[in-house]
Amino acid sequence: MKYTPFCSVDIAFGSMRTLKDLIEDKKEKKKTAVICDRMTADIWEITPLIEKGVEEGRLAWLDKCPSNPTQREVAAALGAVGDLEPESIIAIGGGSSIDIGKAVSAFYYMFPGHRATEEMITDVLKSGSYKEPHRFIDITAVPSTAGTGSEVTQFATIWDVGNKAKYSIDTPFNYAKKAYMIPELTLSLPERLTLSTGLDALSHAMEAFWAKPSTYLVKDVALRAIDMIMTYLPKLLNNPGSLELRTAMTRAALLSGMAFARTRTTACHSIGYPITMMYGVEHGFACALTLDAVSKINREKTELSDMLFETLEKHGGLRKWLDDVCRGIVTLRLKDFGIPEAGIDEIVSGTFTKGRMDNNPVDITPEQVKEILLSIYEYSPETGKEAA
Fold first, then answer.
1. Where is the Alcohol dehydrogenase iron-type/glycerol dehydrogenase GldA domain (predicted)?
2. Architecture, CATH, for domain 10-184
């Protein structure tokens, strides 16, 4: 029997000193590509350490890491690494930074001169040729948000906004070798980002619970993550400077990542992708928009669903909890994100992502997707319910 570990990533919790020691690398002095947005590096006061490493010729620094990276950002990342031929990658930041790190790991040794055009990258993403045996670069992931779980998954998302498409880099060679969880890094997150990444983690955990490949162990881990997020995220938003609460959310997001790493996501993510691509809605919000509706559709076809709904009811029910936790920051309705009702049909047409929608325990039709989207179009304060 082939044994697959539940999580193959070496995980450690650390402090800012841990991060600085990682960058300085006084013992091994490996050639390393550092992926970290410059503004973020300035906030954490690690810019001088990175620049010193660049001057010494042992580091290359990609200092621009926009959200939802496209082929353009991947090409720029390969160019920034240049001819260093790194032995390792340190990806510091949110899921997008870690995704770029995974792309560099997968693609750097595939292309002549370690550089590629956007078209070359698109061809590789479409063909999946990166999965063929070749050299990958070891990744050390240092997440700065409590949400994406990218530090413990083999997936990376690359967006093609022009063609309204989304590609996944999906290979076990892209697991990080190490992940350092440093809750201090999340202290600087603004309120809206704290919320959206927390809801992304909730979506990952819930979708892992009901995904077709889910197991009892996955459900146990996912359920713990769900309970922790629903407990600690509201408290954190009321007390964002609490390192204790930041640590709790970091732990919850890590568990969520470990759960969906075994299952992949389902309908909520599949519906959320075009909402992000077409209207720029943050990924966590785009996925959370449909969580309540999809959970109800999936209930009868999800093993141990009573355990899930008992946990949700413990926190007042999912719909009420979502509205309460978002209050004063965003309203989880399409209209409030600037999405016109006339745009729903186009969202529906872009919804059916292979490997995500068909990973849902219930086959959801385009008509059902439209019905879900209409039900969350706007909010009625008088009734506290959705109004189509």
1. 14-179
2. 3-Layer(aba) Sandwich (3.40)
